[in-house]
Amino acid sequence: MSAIINDIEIIKAKATKINDVDFDNLKFGHVFSDHMLECNYKNGNWEKPKVVPYQPITLDPSAKIFHYGQSVFEGMKAYKDTEGKVWLFRPLDNYKRLNISAKRLAIPELPEDYFMEGLKALLEVDEDWIPQNEGSSLYIRPFIFASGNGFHASPADAYKFIICTAPSGAYFAGEVKVLIEEKYSRSANGGVGYAKAGGNYAGQFYPTQLAVEKGYQQVIWTDDNTHEYIEEAGAMNIFVRINDTLITGPTSDRILDGITRKSIIELAKSEYIPVEVRKITVTEVVEAAKNGSLKEMFGAGTAAVISPISGFGYKEVDYDLPKLDNTYASFLKKCITDIQTNKTDDPFGWRYSVK
Amino acid sequence: MSAIINDIEIIKAKATKINDVDFDNLKFGHVFSDHMLECNYKNGNWEKPKVVPYQPITLDPSAKIFHYGQSVFEGMKAYKDTEGKVWLFRPLDNYKRLNISAKRLAIPELPEDYFMEGLKALLEVDEDWIPQNEGSSLYIRPFIFASGNGFHASPADAYKFIICTAPSGAYFAGEVKVLIEEKYSRSANGGVGYAKAGGNYAGQFYPTQLAVEKGYQQVIWTDDNTHEYIEEAGAMNIFVRINDTLITGPTSDRILDGITRKSIIELAKSEYIPVEVRKITVTEVVEAAKNGSLKEMFGAGTAAVISPISGFGYKEVDYDLPKLDNTYASFLKKCITDIQTNKTDDPFGWRYSVK
Predict the structure, then answer these.
(1) CA of A273, closest CA in chain B: separation in Å?
(2) How far apart are the first and last CA of chain B?
(3) What does the alpha-carbon distance between residue B33 and residue B138 come to, in Å, rounded to a whole number?
(4) Counting C-beta atoms within 10 Å of the first and last residue's C-beta, which end of chain B has fewer, N or C?
(5) By C-alpha distance, which of B48, B107, B119, B41 is closest to B72?
(6) Taking CB atoms and an 8 Å limit, are A203 and B59 in contact across chains?
(7) Which residues carry this modification: N6-(pyridoxal phosphate)lysine (chains A, B) (predicted)?
(8) CB within 8 Å of chain A, chain B residues 37-96
């Protein structure tokens, strides 16, 4: 079957897999919808994207993705409200950031309409895959990788842009304890830390495994020079609340400009929560934990939304955070998910109707 | 056709592509031999490798290589001497480094016999692909990547180890001018710079493109904190000769422990060339260029062997290197390639007979 949506060609899957999916018990990014968007870069141009059945990708063994890590991605979510309407959250920011990442990785930038019209066509075709249950959503993974061939260490001459989607539940199950890193680093000054580049993630896995063995779920990365400044948590930006002030580090060429992060800053300000965007030292956080002024820490990101941190480890000492009744984390999470799922007004203009 | 070599199963290609190859005009890593070694990691174990026809790799779109850059590789060469005997150069060092890289990227380490016996079986099957011409060799590319599926940012549960080979000529055509980098960086303290991780290469492409636009072929990376210490050139380690002393930076968690680099250090010492392994400042190199004591700079790596540098740029100023008749670079290159190609004795025990 073939059709056209938003001027995008659609090749439909012969059968659906949706009846095999237990929408009441969704894990994160584990089950994939029936279709995907595919768009190829060849001979100096992005070709028009198509919606095709979700299907394997076949590459030459010399394809540069296998050798030189030339890949970038984004993370987004689609929400279905109680009336069945479908919404995205600040999708143009994801599009822009994908191109910022692409440029740093020497990947050709993508035209806006290929991204936006392609995504909308994909969501229309797989609309039934968007969960309506509380706390679930359709996780959307746009990614670009080097499909061109050759062992020369230089940018590829061919790329694939693909969007896959996965109906998903919570990213973290249970409480999150973090380890503040003293030895390993995520990114360099002048490096690719601000890009959603594949290699940034692989480099975190081993130190994170070491942290998991010690009983933590995530690592909080610090600067590679002094390990004294808190940067981010790899899949999340980090916020701390000292007394009543909410603090997060400034973005830099080492830190991802998180869309949830900047939305929380705006939301908190609009709710008259004192917000500071400034460098945070580990010493300051440890002192605040000791004297009781550290009230909350949480991570913020598309996958995890807002993920409260129950405690942190630093220099072999564990610090527990207080268990408060009314946290900024729960308040801000409700604010942001209510906007995302069309349960409330959207004074910021963040919500985006898919059709 | 199926056979067994070194206890490795061989599935032969139905036809050879070798007659299409112009062995007198080989580029680098552009044409691939008839076979490849393939070895899969599943259910917590590396399965026995097989030699199979060179063939495409098929992966799910959620395979972690596309998203999280979990990949490592090696570069090696096989040489055929005038009697047709086949030689490798310090292959166990490549094997060990592959596992060092793998560990840092949370990739399961590979058994030595799978690597060594697999490689030898592959070279026996594709022996005709090993060039005998002066300056050419069979470039060997062992690599491991995450083939397991899922969008969760965590190590994959399945991997592929593959060795492909490519009859190759010189890596660089013509002279190499380098730019000493003042803004961008290759690696962080506590990062993955010492590993041959895919992501380390992608991050270099954009700054290298900027350097190429200014008329340079390569970037010399400096430390990310002060940009005052010379590190490496991404595909090569860097040596400088000031007066008669050969100097190269120490390896660290930011710098690859190059096999050509350490061989050159040993070779130079055995030839009574004064060698210093110590930090090199950019200031020192610029001063030496100005006062005429900077005699040579060259890169050293498996692909490029020894690649003389004709000049460098720094802070918008170009510095030319003198054109000497008898350079350390040409002398040491002859020493190392004579050992590699069995033209001379091998007092170090570096040469390795394939059969």
Answers:
(1) 32
(2) 22
(3) 9
(4) N
(5) B107
(6) no
(7) 196
(8) 54-63, 65-71, 73
Pick B66's closest partner by Cβ from A145, A151, A203: A145
Is B345 exposed, middle or buried, given 0-12, 13-18 or 19+ CB atoms closer than 10 A? exposed
Give one DSSP letter per residue of A220-278, joined into a string: E-B-TTTS-BB-B-SSSEEEEEETTEEEEPPPBTTB---HHHHHHHHHHHHTT--EEES
Interface A–B counts its CB contacts (< 8 A) at 249
Average pLDDT of the segment spanning B31-54: 97
Residue B71's closest CA among B253, B188, B199?
B199
Q: What percent of chain A has pLDDT over 70?
A: 99
Cβ–Cβ of A202/B197 closer than 8 Å? yes
CATH 3.20.10.10 fits A176-340, yes or no: yes
Q: Is B17 on the interface with A (CB under 8 A)?
A: no
Contact A58/B60, CB-based, under 8 Å? no
Cite the beta strand spans of chain B per DSSP E: 2-5, 8-11, 35-42, 45-46, 50-53, 57-59, 71-73, 76-80, 86-89, 137-146, 159-168, 176-180, 218-220, 237-242, 245-248, 275-277, 294-301, 305-314, 317-320, 351-353
pLDDT over 70 at B1, yes or no: no
Mean pLDDT check: name the lowest of A173-177, A247-251, B54-58, B192-196.
A173-177
Contacts of A205 in chain B (CB under 8 A): 68, 70, 105-106, 154-155
- Answer whether residue B81 shows pLDDT above 70: yes
Check if the interface score ipTM surpasses 0.85. Answer: yes
Q: Does A209 touch chain B (CB under 8 A)?
A: yes
Look at A203 and A5; give whichever has higher pLDDT.
Answer: A203
pLDDT in tens, B163-193: 999 999 887 777 799 999 999 999 999 999 9
Residue tagged 């309506």 (tokens): A132
| Alpha-carbon Rg for chain A in angstroms | 21
In the CATH scheme, what architecture does the domain A2-168 have?
A: 2-Layer Sandwich (3.30)
Q: Which residue in the set A103, A198, A206 is minimally distant from B68, CB to CB?
A: A198
